[in-house]
Amino acid sequence: LVRERAEGGNLFNELAKRRRLEEYAVRKIAVQLAGALKHMKDHGVVCGSLNLETIGYKTAEKEQVMVLSMRNSTMIGQPAAFTQEYNEYDVENEMGELEVRTYPVGVDLSYVAPELMKPGSRRRTP
């Protein structure tokens, strides 16, 4: 498998560095992504994991974007090429009762808001 090199890095790193993009840049990215998704759909491919880390800049000038990862893609009408696994966590709800929360495997829970793992931990005091 031969792929192009994304000279400009991915969109996630660019946003982390710049904090925000200008409206014209966002429009340009949206139009290019819409075209890429239409092209994939026309060829019977569904992209299953499009996010900021899987969108990259083709060149260092950051004019063109491309989809970097197609690991969760599948052909339309075919069974999925992957199956999602889940982990379960016991957490206390707002009433102090234990309940089970389910998250997909591979989700980095260090980014999850603390109140999702233990809802009463960030409650405001009256």
TrEMBL record:
InterPro entries: Kinase-like_dom_sf, Prot_kinase_dom. Gene3D superfamilies: Transferase(Phosphotransferase) domain 1. Residues 1-126 form the Protein kinase domain. The lineage of its organism: Eukaryota, Viridiplantae, Chlorophyta, Mamiellophyceae, Mamiellales. This is Protein kinase domain-containing protein. One of its GO terms (molecular function) is protein kinase activity.
